[in-house]
Amino acid sequence: MASFHTVEDQARPDAWPENKNGAPNSHADRDVAGTPQPKVFGPCPGSGRDIEVRCMPDDSLHLPLIHDVLERLKATPGALLPVLHAIQDCVGYIPDDALPEIAHALNLSVAEVRGVISFYHDFRTSPPARHTLRLCRAESCQSRGAEALAAQLREQLELDDHGTSADGRIALRPVYCLGACACSPALELDGRVHARLTPERLRKLVNGCREDAKC
Ligand code: FES
After folding, report:
1. Are 71 and 40 within 8 A, CB to CB?
2. What pLDDT is attached to residue 181?
3. 138 lines ligand 1 (CB under 6 A)
4. To test ligand 1's pocket by mutation, which of 184, 188, 189 has the most ligand atoms within 8 angstroms of CB?
5. Which parts of the chain have pLDDT scores under 70?
6. Where are the domains of the chain?
């Protein structure tokens, strides 16, 4: 069981221990009774402070946070994209209940807001998986073996390129350039880029995720 100096430490992912495979220790986001504990997605651009995020039983419980973001960003020129990014950064995804609030604050229709969310693949409308693997499929990585690594991922996880495991814990997403072209092939795992990837390193990363996802 992980030990933390303070309650605040427990809420910081960088204070969480890692397991031997390098994946975050899943026990760190649960208390002794197995109750999900808050996760921190980093500072919220809308409010500038770290936000503790729980999987809310009801999406509407995120509304105070969404109102806070809207209040701070609605006057920004071209506010829709900054607002959507801020909500996703703070909540982890864009809840359906947020759409009428966003539309009202920005004087748009709900259909317009929904259209922008669905146009950009990086916006999520449901809570993120515990582990998300984003393999770069752009030219530089392709020329250094990314397609073979993609096939390895599909086989090892039994998922397609956009797949999510049945328990929702591991997600696979293609991405087109991670800015690490000089060190390709590259993959981003939970926001951290792994460059000069080899089949063996990829296998270890995936095994670490799978072990963690069992917990
Ligand atoms: S092409 Fe893969 S990181 Fe740029």
Report:
1. no
2. 96
3. yes
4. 184
5. 1-59, 215
6. 38-119, 131-214
Asked whether 146 lines ligand 1 (CB < 6 A), one says: no
pTM of the model: 0.60
Q: Which residues contact 197 (CB under 8 A, 6 or more apart)?
A: 149, 185, 186, 187
* pLDDT for the residue 141: 97
Beta bridge partners of 132: 171
Q: Which listed CATH number (3.40.30.10, 2.30.30.90, 3.30.1490.190, 3.30.40.10) goes with 131-214? A: 3.40.30.10
- Ligand 1 atom nearest 140 alpha carbon: 1
Say if CB 163 and CB 171 are below 8 A apart. yes
Any ligand 1 atom below 6 A from CB of 110: no
- Mark out the alpha helices in 11-134 (DSSP H runs): 63-73, 80-91, 98-106, 110-119
Q: Is the CB of 159 under 6 A from ligand 1?
A: no
Residue 82: DSSP 8-state: H
Residue 195 in contact with ligand 1 by CB distance below 6 A: no
133 to 38, 92, 163: CA distances (angstroms): 22, 16, 10
